[in-house]
Design goal:
Length: about 350
């Protein structure tokens, strides 16, 4: 669990970063921004409210952490915030400018902040926040003027919508820290620049990561692999997806042997699943282990795509929740159409 409800902004530096590909400029401020209590509370809400959930990242060490510019900068800040925040923030803004090469990337203000009293999984930690505001909104200002009113318009930043941001927690430095990310505006090819080109992150292999990937393996095995290798009807797939749902509802631990036995039963399917899991791990360079505690947030997310849905032409969508023996399929030779027959106790 992560929350910044009791956090405070200890320091802040503000720069403006243009799009290098569009010949826009980089404007570095001359000194840290002097905060007051009123603006500090507004900025804290703007910066931290969008961060939710438990999907975290780490800085990539593919070429070594010393070659990861943001990892290097934040390490300097954590080492001595008072002396290093400003110079490191200039390095961060310059690096963002250097990777802003897609023509659709918008110019905007970049805020580098040092936050205290952030809460992450039972620990109170300091964190570094890097945020970018790109989108402007038009606001109306209404003033009393004698017995009437005056209306003016102005452009500004909507504090209820952070465009891009990341929170880097002072935890697990040797493993690439713990990083949470927000990106609400990027689409298409320019979407990768914030996470990949600028921050250079990879997903943290924690319980969320393991649970999310294992759920993908289970779903893909049932919906893609088995139908290619065996004769399997959509109803057979629906039945297996329902068994998946039941397993993940009833168990807090994932155990490969227990899962295979309860969901498939068939020894051949069980062996094929274990082989499919190993191939998935090899392809994506991970080790999900055969036994681990599952993450509740990832399970909630999975409930949306583990549903058993059968679409019949463009006329019907059928959700199958269980009881395979209450569904029959067949073909009406006279009409030349296939059919499903459902048996039920009562209509609701």
């Amino acid at each position: 669990m992560m929350t910044c409800d009791d956090a405070t902004i200890d320091k802040l530096v503000l720069h403006r970063v243009g799009n290098k590909a569009n010949n826009e400029s980089l404007h570095l401020s001359k000194a840290p921004y002097i905060l007051n209590s009123d603006i500090s509370s507004v900025l804290l809400k703007y910066f931290t409210t969008p961060f939710k959930g438990s999907q975290y990242y780490v800085f990539s060490d593919e070429r070594g952490f010393n070659n990861n510019k943001i990892y290097t900068a934040v390490s300097q800040i954590f080492e001595n915030p008072d002396d290093n925040l400003y110079s490191a923030s200039c390095d961060i803004a310059t690096h963002l400018f250097d990777v802003s090469l897609h023509p659709n990337i918008k110019a905007g203000e970049v805020y580098v902040t040092y936050l205290k009293n952030c809460y992450l999984d039972g620990e109170i930690l300091d964190a570094i926040g890097i945020f970018k505001s790109e989108t402007r909104q038009t606001y109306l200002k209404i003033y009393p003027q004698g017995d009437d009113f005056s209306i003016e318009s102005d452009d500004g930043i909507d504090i209820n919508k952070l465009d891009k941001g990341c929170l880097i927690f002072n935890k697990d430095q040797e493993e690439g820290y713990v990083v949470s990310v927000v990106d609400t505006t990027s689409r298409g090819n320019e979407a990768v620049y914030w996470v990949d080109d600028f921050l250079n992150l990879m997903q943290r292999q924690d319980s969320y990561f393991k649970t999310d990937n294992m759920l993908n393996i289970c779903k893909n095995f049932v919906t893609e692999y088995l139908p290619q290798e065996y004769e399997m009807t959509r109803m057979d797939q629906a039945d297996l997806l329902n068994r998946n749902q039941e397993f993940f509802k009833e168990n807090k631990n994932f155990d490969t042997d227990s899962y295979s036995e309860k969901v498939f039963g068939d020894d051949e399917f069980s062996e094929q699943f274990k082989k499919f899991k190993r191939q998935y791990e090899d392809e994506y360079g991970m080790n999900l282990q055969d036994n681990f505690i599952m993450n509740e947030e990832a399970l909630k997310k999975a409930s949306r795509y583990l549903r058993s849905v059968i679409k019949l032409d463009k006329n019907f969508t059928v959700y199958i929740h269980g009881k395979r023996d209450r569904v029959e399929t067949g073909e009406d030779e006279e009409k030349g159409l296939r059919y499903y027959k459902f048996y039920f106790d009562k209509e609701s």
